[in-house]
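Late entry, JCZ complex.
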Amino acid sequence: MTMRLDYLSIFPAYFDVLDISLLGKAAVNGLVEVHAHDLRDWTHDRHRTVDDTPCGGGAGMVMKPDPWGEAFDEIIGTEPDSSVHVIFPSPSGAPFTQSAAQELSSAVRIVFCCGRYEGIDHRVIDYARSMWTVHEVSLGDYVLNGGEVAALAITEAVVRLVPGFMGNPESLAEESFSAGQDGLLEYPLFTRPVSWRGLDVPEVLMSGHHGRIAKWRRDESVRLTCERRPDLTDSDFGVPH
Ligand SMILES: Nc1cc(-c2ccc3cc[nH]c3c2)n[nH]1
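Prediction complete; structure with ligand written out below:
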C-alpha cells in the first residue's frame, strides 16, 4: 500500500528535503508518494494574493479561504472521503503524540495544510471537516512562523512507522514514548570505545549479565522520567514520588 502525502504551502521548497535520507528511499521503494504544491497556483490576481486583513481588526494578515478551496478541489476532490486525513499544524491544535503518529501511519492519504501569516481563515478548516478527517495539531508550546516545519516533523514521525519503511522494525520497539517502553523515557545509550576522554561505559553494560542490564536500563528510564517528565509518571509505575 502506497501512502500519498500532499503539502499545500506558499513555500513548497521546504519539502524538497523529503527527497533525501530515509524518506527518499521510501519514495523510491514506492512506500510513500510525495507531492508539494504552491498555494499561489490557485490565485488569479497579478500579485498572486493569498492573504487579507483580519475581519474584526487586529494585527497581521489572515490567509484567504478562496485559494485553499480551489486547491482542495483539484488536489483532493469535491466528494467527501473520510479516508483522507487533512492536517492543519496550529499553535492552538491538540498536542501531536506518538499514538497519533501510530494511527496516521496506516492512512492511505495525508494532506498537510501549512498556514503562514497569523493563520488560515477558519472556514477552510470547517469546510475540510465537512469533507475529510481533519486534525488540528500542535507540535509543542512554542510559536513557529508557519506550518511547514511542523509538517516535516509530523511526516518523519508518521512515515518511519509505515510497515516496511524502517530496515530494522525492532529498533522502533525500544524508543521513548513507544508502547514497549511503558511510556517511560529511553535509557542512556553507549557504544565503543569503552573508555573515551576519561569517561567509561557503565560496567553493568559490559558484564554480559542480561538480567542486570535489563534492570539497570529500567531503573535509568524510571529515574530519567521522574527527573525530566513528571507529567508522564503516574502511580502505576510504583515509583516513589
Ligand atoms: N506548535 C506550533 C505550531 C505553530 C504554527 C503552525 C502554523 C502557523 C501558521 C502561522 N503561524 C503558525 C504557527 N507554531 N507552533
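Residues 234 and 241 are 9 Å apart (CA to CA). Will revisit in the morning.
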